[in-house]
Amino acid sequence: MHIHILGICGTFMGGLAALAREAGHKVTGCDANVYPPMSEQLQALGIELITGYGAEQMELTPDVFVIGNVVTRGERFPLMEAILDAGAAYQSGPQWLAEHVLAGRHVLAVAGTHGKTTTTSMLAWILEHAGLEPGFLVGGVPMNFGVSARLGKGKHFVIEADEYDTAFFDKRSKFVHYRPRTAILNNLEFDHADIFPDVAAIETQFHHLVRTVPASGRLVVNARDEALGRVLQRGCWSEVQRFGARKEEPGSLRARGEPQAFDVLRGSLKLAHVDWELIGEHNQLNALAAIAAAEHAGVTPEQSAAALSAFKNVRRRMELRGEAQGIKVYDDFAHHPTAMRTTIDGLRRRIAPAERILAIFEPRSNTMKLGAMKAQLPWALEEADLAFCHQSGLSWDAAEALTPMGEQAIVAADVDALVAAVVKAAKPGDHLLCMSNGGFGGIHEKLLSSLAAKA
């Protein structure tokens, strides 16, 4: 089969392309900007990449066009208009994946507003460590594997289950297509303000996912999350394994101890001990979810704990990019206020009391650009010693939103001005935490070079 993928350089569509190529299909694709790292990964697989969405790509005559959710109707996408005019075959990415990769496999899906990529990576690594050779598709690059997707030789397939919509012609969440036998519901908050009017709309999509899990399946559910509780109240037909309860709860998995070294308990019974490199209570909860899901695949909590002790995290999750003049520069994917707060809190718990955190963030997601959560930013950043915000591209005034922080917050119009402000304020022993779901204008290297030049 020859498939031509529109929007191929996105994380999900690029992973799908790699899986299709590994399965023996001919794969080509296009994107508005063919850019690394995905472009380099795909070209290394022998996948032809075309810049732009020109209608002349119809001459490739693939068996089916696979449409990414970046594609819309209209003049920006002449190729899509040509596909429709010609009556050519097309599918969404999730639908193609469900039919050609996931069919007949034990799918383990990881859903949630936060922690999907990390938890999916943990779960895939646990199954790999147990010798199950799973396939996986992750919205990032797990350091234990070095790739974001593979078919795997075993019957299990672990997938990051995104609640974002599927395509311009299918407004259901992507995860509705995956039909998991094991589903993690990690947490649920309002996000994606560009497509969801409120949190209730997201809860409806999560309940659609719940409806697809068979009676013999397992739902792994965060016991602390009220929104997930409301989702299950709408109806549940599968076994539920709860995790993360703050006190002993019969049957629920919980942790006892600090996030970097903790016991895994079911009720009052100790099942395993995790001692690893990751920081933050959020990662402790991610680990409990992964352990509970792996148990449904036949891996004991003790085996899972052993695997997690060798887990190396995911790129762009508190990734140390370098150090200059005793100042450390980190890269993190956090872009939702809750994720920013938990990331800062995790770093705060790891560093010495006298050391400072300079939080540098880019409100880049559609939700943040719309200003839907600007009021939460002071709360998200309050544990940082200084906060630096990139104003460019926003329809709202970041300085006004950060007024409650007073002199603790600094706003700059572009990345170079932001770098200059950070370098002026930074001193040896500081931790510069850059948070964005994009490239952030290469700010990490700019900070490191400017700090070195300052010396």
Beta-strand fraction estimate: 15-25%
Overall pLDDT, averaged? 90
Number of strands: 23
Major sheet size, sense and barrel closure? 7 strands, mixed
CATH evolutionary superfamily of the largest domain: Mur-like, catalytic domain
Low-confidence stretches: none
Q: Report the CATH C-level class of the largest domain.
A: Alpha Beta
* CATH fold-level topology of the largest domain: UDP-N-acetylmuramoyl-L-alanine:D-glutamate ligase
In the CATH hierarchy, what is the architecture of the largest domain at level 2? 3-Layer(aba) Sandwich
Comma- or semicolon-separated keywords:
3 domains, seven-stranded mixed beta sheet, 15 helices, 455 residues, UDP-N-acetylmuramoyl-L-alanine:D-glutamate ligase, Rossmann fold, Protein-Tyrosine Phosphatase, Chain A, six-stranded mixed beta sheet, single chain, alpha/beta
Q: How does this model look, in words?
A:
This protein has 455 residues and is an alpha/beta fold. It has 3 domains: 2-93, Rossmann fold (3-Layer(aba) Sandwich), CATH 3.40.50; 104-308, UDP-N-acetylmuramoyl-L-alanine:D-glutamate ligase; 319-454, Protein-Tyrosine Phosphatase, Chain A (Alpha-Beta Complex), CATH 3.90.190.20. It is built from 15 helices and 23 strands. It has helices at 11-22, 38-44, 78-86, 93-102, 116-129, 199-212, 226-233, 281-296, 301-308, 337-350, 366-369, 377-381, 398-401, 415-425, 443-454, and strands at residues 2-6, 26-31, 48-51, 64-67, 90-92, 106-111, 135-137, 149-150, 156-160, 165-167, 170-173, 182-185, 218-222, 239-243, 253-258, 261-266, 269-275, 319-324, 327-332, 357-361, 386-390, 409-412, 431-435. The strands form 5 sheets. The chain has a 7-stranded mixed sheet with strand order 8-7-9-6-12-13-14, sandwiched between helices. Helix 1 (11-22) runs parallel beside helix 2 (38-44) and helix 5 crosses helix 8. The protein is globular. The chain starts with a strand and ends with a helix. The model has no long low-confidence stretch (mean pLDDT 90).
